[in-house]
Here is the input.
Amino acid sequence: MKRFISKLEAFLELGGTKKDIALLVISGVSLLLSIFNLISLPFDPAWIAIILCGIPIILEALIGLVTAFDIKADVLVSLALVASVCIGEDFAAGEVAFIMQLGGLLEELTVAKARAGIEKLVRLTPRTARILTAEGEKIISAEDVQVGDRIRVLPGETVPVDGVILSGQTSVNQAVMTGESLPVDKAAGDEVSSGTVNQFGAFEMKAVKVGEDSSIQRMIRLVQSADAGKAKIVGIADRWATWVVVIALTAAFLTWLISGEVIRAVTILVVFCPCAMVLATPTAIMAAIGNATRHGFLVREGDALERLAAVRRIAFDKTGTLTYGNPKVVAVKSLSDHWDTAALFAYAASAEQFSEHPLGKAVVRDFKAQENAFLHPADDFRMIPGQGVSARIEGKKFLAGNEKMLEEACGILSDSVYVEAQEYLEKGCTIIYLASDGVPAGFLALADTVRPESARMLSRLKALGVRPVLLTGDHENAAGAIAGDLGIDDVKANCLPEDKLTLIGSFQAKGEAVCMIGDGINDAPALKKADVGIAMGGVGSDIAVDAADIALVDDQVQELPHLFALSRRMMVTIKCNLSFSLGLNLLAIILAITGILGPVAGALVHNAGSVVVIIHSALLLKWRKKE
Here is the structure.
């Protein structure tokens, strides 16, 4: 029996879409010949369609019954084919087989188009790497690269693994990972991701994440886990299909007994097939997943969009989600007549130019972003852990650090210093105090900057009836300032990971479906707990992405309202498909029982309905809610 089944499965290997199309063309021509009798043949040309399109359906049904007693649409279609042939309705049998295969091909093409946008990631996987060894340069498979290997990447080549640039300067096209259309300048110390393309200069890098841990492989795993078959509504349709098969057989048998006409029973089998109900639902889900992909979302769970449609509350982490997660200098304040703000900023950046602290790097970065920025040479640089840095610049001993460092160098600070700084502290800013030769000179205020698209995004979510809540580990001042700017009324500050988990659980206990969006390791428990978890795929941690149902690859949060609207549209499409297919089946069955509808007309009506709902689902591929 196993050998028989394996042979049947091998027979069903049709060899791809092109071959399917060729078989359908031949079958279609044979049906036309059967209708118009254009060529005199010793047999009915409809048999060509029966053999090419019908036999695979029958074998699929047989394998399902033998291996798992799986009663699906193929069983009913097979019975209709055999019964039509037995009563001499060869054309009806050929037409049923032809249109069934046509509907299947349409679904296959729809699904293929839906996933084309994300499957290109697989093709972009780097094949080779140019590693540097003691013996010289050697080209090996990208899969064989080890953490710590030194790699050279030439212009035009794809970065093979995640790593850090050791030497060289270049521009890298990161569109595959971030969606950015413009190249990003890279130099020593900058991180590069696998799958991105080196455009101009050659550089050498050290491998940090290789194999399955690399960025491109992480995205591929997200793609491969997108499976419409996981959706609950698909499971319901499959269960209905089994009952429909049983009911159809019963109705056909009773009609035959009462009327005495076999042709009516055969027609019932033809029109009762639940193909539209079974095929159109997963097609709608996959089309919606394809649409989401075009807008930067990778859907990991097939039922995630179904669950998202019911969400009426969304919880946001702050840093890296509503904000960029990078500190930025928002103010330079001078506390001395001897210093203007421009000179103070230049000295502060010059003192911080050798610092490894994130705040020091932010100061240097923002200063360099100005026109005609020039860093002064800094001597005697010292970093004092937990306090700040000191350096000698143009003969002056310059300090940049926290309040403790300044008090040790300058004594107790005057009240005026604190009053000036308090205004920014209340907004959640971080203060770097500055001093020159033991005298307070001023301070820099740094803050995480809000994404400019966040306010409009939240406004559009509210218009959809989704209420935002801010869950953040930041202190109340910073959380309140951000929430005030964005119009978020519900704010929970100083949240530990377990606090976020508890708060989401409290919403769910009230019957509210919750979506959580975050990027950090501390967000992973909440992402898992929420009805739908969305991770920032670009800046997010691996753990956060793995815990989420959906990843926002390019971090463009302005697309979130589209995702919510799309999920609701998908559910409307599915319900319309199910209602239409059930209504059409019911009408066709009544006409078949009364003898008005014959096998040929029944096949046309039923399968035309299948094609209609598949095309209706395909409309989701390019759907977008009008503003």
The two ends are 59 Å apart (CA to CA). The chain is about 50% helix and 20% strand. The longest strand covers residues 323-334.
